[in-house]
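Recap quiz, item 2
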Amino acid sequence: MKRIFSIAFLTLFSMGIALGQTKVTGKVTDLNTGEPVSYASVAVKGYNTAGTFTDDNGNYTINMPEGSTAIIVSYMGYKTQEITVNSRSIIDVALESDIAQIEETFVVAYGTATRGKYSGAATVIKADKIQDIPVVSFEQALTGNTPGIQIGSSSGLPGSFPEIRIRGAGSINAENDPLYIIDGVPAISGDLSTANTTTSSMNFLNPSDIESITILKDAAAAALYGSRAANGVVLVTTKKGKAGKTQFRFKADMGLSDFAFNNFPLASDAETEMLHREAWTNYGSLQYTGIQLEQYVNGQVEMYYPAKQPEYVYVDWRKELFRTAVTQNYELSVSGGDEKTRFFLSGSYNKNEAVTKGRYFDRISASMNFEHKVNQYITLGVGFQYSYTDQSGHQEGGAAYDNPWWAAMSFLTWRWPAYNADGTYWTGFNGGTKAYDTGNSSYRNPLLNNDTQITTSAQTRLLMKPWAEINIIEGLKAKTIFGYDGIYMHDRFGWLPDHANGQAYGDGFLTVKKHEYSKLVSSSTLNYSKTFAGDHNLSAMAGWEAEKQSNYHDYMGKIDMASTKVISMAMLANVYGDVTDYNDESTLLSFISSMNYNYLSKYFLSATYRRDGSSRLAEKNRWGDFWSISGLWRIKSENFMQDINWLDNLQLRVSYGVSGTLPTSWYYHKPFYNFEPYGTSGSFYISSADNPELTWEKNFTTNIAVESKLFNRVNFSVDFYIKRTKDLLLPATTSAISGYTSYLRNIGSMKNTGVELDINVDIIKTKDITWTAGINWTANKNRITELSYEDEEILDSPYMLKKGYSYNQFYTREYAGVNPQTGQVQFYRNNKLPDGTYNKEIVNSASDANNIIIEGKTGDPKGYGGITTGFRYKNLSIGLLFNYMYGHYVFDQAQDQMSVDGGTSFYRSISKDQLRRWQKPGDITDVPRRMPYDRAGYYNSSRMLLKGDFIRLKSITVSYNLPQSWAKKVKLEDVRIYAAGNNIFAVTGLYFDPELPDSRGFSNRQTPPVRTISFGIELSF
Amino acid sequence: MKKYNTITVMTLLAFAVMFTSCSDFLDTNPTDRLPADQVETLSDAEKVVNGFYINMKWNDYYGTPLMLLGETRGDDLRPRLETNGYPQIYNYEFTPSNYSYSGIWSTAYNVIMNTNVFLNIWENIPAASDDETAQKNDLKGQALTVRAFCHFDLARVYGYPYQKDNGASLGAVIGNRKFNPGEQVERSSVQKTYEFAIQDLTEALPLLSTDKNHGNFNYWGAKGLLARVYLYMGDYDNAFKHADEILTDLDNPYRLILNSEYADSWGKPDSPETMLELLTTAFSHIDDNGGVDSWYYVLWHGAGFSAGRLIPTDAWFAILDEDPDDVRHSLIQSATDEGVNFRWLAKFCGNNGDGDFKINNPMIMRLSEIYLIAAEAALMKPAINQSKADYYLHEIRKRANPAAAQITATVDDVLKERRKEFIGEGHRYFDLGRLGLTIDRNTPDNKLPAGSDYKIVDPWNRGGNQFQVVLPLSSNERTSNRAAFQNPGYPD
């Protein structure tokens, strides 16, 4: 009775006061499982502002405005239901899962696409693939995850610059790096550091702030980015807030790093002495015998590999210069919102020691994404990424004692002293009788050099992206986004007075380089989509974009330091070299458009068109057209395929289009006067050529692909592509009478042909156990198809660029092994015969041998890719990722100075391979006899070309979610503990890390990759 | 509905705005360079003219190889050790691909290109007063003089000496206009190259200022160059005429350095007799490497990181030592290296005289040279003027030692004086070359490789096997300009 009264009262109340405001309540559940669905959206049809969400138990309450008739219940992954209220006040809804909708949507150029309905070649990498891998920048975690992407060497120093090649190198002189788009805004990319260290400009993003990465590979996917898209596009989407309960997530991990590979094994102390003794015996026997010989050998060995002196301290250099490095990472994020406003906030602190003592990379970062629905027409949002990074590296490559890695590898023997007895650095060069102190002025203690070298690069970066979206009428939407990317860099490079170079320049040397890079982008697009006659779906987009990049630089250098305690420009006496500041600008103005049409969601046709105008080209060549056309046929949707039950999906994609690459030089199209002081006045002179005819490099890409899903378990896709680069930007030699010896021209063409295969299998799919496995494989073949004239050879040592050969074709002397009778090194002298073939003549001196194209040996892998597997049992999951590469050769620049066969640099360390040297007639070996002054190994030759094949356990992650009941006890929603590691082990024939060489197969003595094992905990509440 | 319209209009407006005035947006310029079409004022033009000299001082032209070609191919300077101090030049190891020293060719043409670009726009430079017109004319005169100077260098480096065959051998590609990249143009003869230089200089003389200006060519510098060109050609009447006119002109702003000033004069720029030196400063070195690629680095044997890799020959010391009181002994110092004593040339001690040899103005022309040109030409011209020759030579000799007695001058005396006076200034080889004299380097102190063909050098290559006395065009130059032929003897 009481209840009836209440209802009656309420009814009267609502009728009388709210006039039609009725309330509906209910519960939303999963049709299959009966479990409640929380955070499902419940909206009133026709009233955008009146919606709500279900709570943790799936319950909702919603006010129905006057005149409303139905509610709409939706949740991602379920079919949306529209339910007519019919004056009911309690409506329970059971949602049916929607397989089609679970098919992911992903970010593409200027919009999103649905998997299976997109005709371009794009790969998506979700956050969970990379989230736990201990890397500074997300780029390093891409390796092996997706076909078509090759990540070249990155130094083992944290934060260093990795080389990313999407479908091979398409350019010779312009950039080969992809374009990076972050949340729709083209970001500044590349290696910007000027502090004698490399740095990736993507270091600023905490990988945990990334929701997904889309890699656009063909023209259909990338051509909308026009004149910058030829090397592929990496689209990064940062994490956004989700409506519902505010979620906190805290993550902390700590890791330990060390070199991932036993690089360049060295002969032991005793072996080294034995090898020295042998070398001097070989040499001495040419003039001495008996006791004389013995005395001579002892003398020489004592000179070049002297016995340890009691007054000095000797060390294992590798232990002394390197360490097990500690990395730490802490993150906190908050995500939440309601149907009108959503937000995501995060902050992180990342601290990485380098394996090289004293070097480091630290980052503080923050990310914020906010959006608000003002009304049914307008939604506003803003994204913010801020970071401060502080990095210290050192010179790499052959920078002698300034690259501790190279110093430890090559110069330092077991018998070089490290310290004096009093603990001070031993600095050698004392005018004594040993090799290390008789006036070898290039010898410096690398411990001292490492301490007295200043290389710091600090960057503050802000990426800001306010945007607005307007629903003008049904189907017509406008979006405008404004992007600002600003990097403030402060680089310092110098040498303290104790450093050898510090003395060369004066009494200590310091340069400060400040840079401000900024990129402003404004783009606005109109989208229209409509379904005609029920079956014809059309969508179109048109818009414009303007972009302006400014690079401001400020340099200053001084010598003569007053103090090494306080190091700043204020504490140095004299200005040295140029003091300058300047600003460069590059602008781009574009019109963009695309059109997608499909019939019955079965036949898809898409076209894109972009017109770019660039400030980097002369007015008459400024505007270029970039376009693509592509089609998709969902064969499985045809009626005749319906009966094939084991085939869940089959589709064919075809695309063709053109994208471009702008010259890296911003002002090459017109002549300029450089300034230089002349006495007390100034001077202007034209020193470099200009070319008003300059235009884009153009990439014409054809892509044909088949995608399929079998037995509801096996996802399979294969892509074939041909990427032709025309109008290559190349410096052409010209007669100096023009005033220049070369100038940049659009000449030549190149072709990349390839296949990409991606297979992923759901082996077990049950509630408690899932097991997936995948393999991807890419084969890319590169050919230079044209240069400026028929037989042109462009030497790019140790490569030769020539028509018909790969961009990475090796060109060096041809090694002919060791003469088994004499132990002498042998090379081929290749004499070209009139018929074009070569007559091979064996010579014993490198200077008699000529450089030649080493047929069949290039830096190009025949194939590369990754193998992944993921296993989950209830709350425990394990992921493994292997990467592999085969069929390529690497050129080991280190070998010529470590395997010197007893040559001139015999006071250096000796690599272990010297134990295989020739010793007596009849020995069959690849290492010549040890003979001082022979310098056999000290010359580049194909002896340094090594098969680079490898497979590596690239990463492993183990993660365990504590049972919810435990977590709840400590008032937490979820507790996850995890362990992750990268570069776990590698199987290879190389004697150094197989990922040390760069993307062209060149190993340039840089700090090798490290293995990091980390442990972490993630709390959600 | 009204609301929709407002939004639509606003959106369309937003789209419309961006298409207006976007042409400027795509024109960008750097801030550390001046667009070539913005050289518009006399002040701009003056800087462009200074730019010619900046390019000439580089370490691939006057800063290093041209001086070396003038010195270490001769008999006054030699490497102290076999392996240092540009032994390839000393040994005449020139080849089109390895040691072509093509920087001389390419830098000279870069300067020529700059002069031609300037001459093309010279007419448009405004000049509002007589003073400005004079200044404007002077700038054109400098451009013509520099162009002539570069052609003269090209002829003497890449062609045989004029007097060998009256300039019949291959000389320079005449750069009388700006060439486009890739243009194929043939080389003219040495004779035509000299003619072109003389024509430019003749045109320049009336335009040039007569004010002293040590870092730029002026009237006197151009006239001195004309005297030098005629001397090389063996036209001694004209050589004498121009040299003598300079020395007898009361407006001539130069005077010889005094004996008392001599030692210190090398440590500072703009001496009273400097007619042209190329200006270097701490912010404008000879190279991009702080000056260590300059040839002054190779000469200097001071403290620290300098080299002392080239030293005077015993033969040169022998003639200097004939007079122990010669002031030029003040430019010689002694040193010891690895137990070996030697004397070295401390002439180029840097613009500040403090031994910072890396900031050192390459000396191109000074009044002493005009004296010795006049003396030599007076003796060589058909109507010998012995008294003038005696006078001019004596002025230099008595400056070196005030006690020196006046002598009856011979050509040999003049040449010997040139050796003593100009060592390190890049003249000796060319002096021997223009006269066709044999160079004797077969001395105990030579550092030539054992089998060297260049122990006795004939700059006229009369035997035919010393073709490396002229430099080759680089193989790149040959490939890219098929019309310009290689010098005889070199592989093509």
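The CA atoms of residues 65 and 314 of chain B lie 23 Å apart.
The beta strands of chain B are 33-35, 77-79, 274-277, 310-312, 332-337, 340-345, 363-366, 439-440, 456-457.
End of item.
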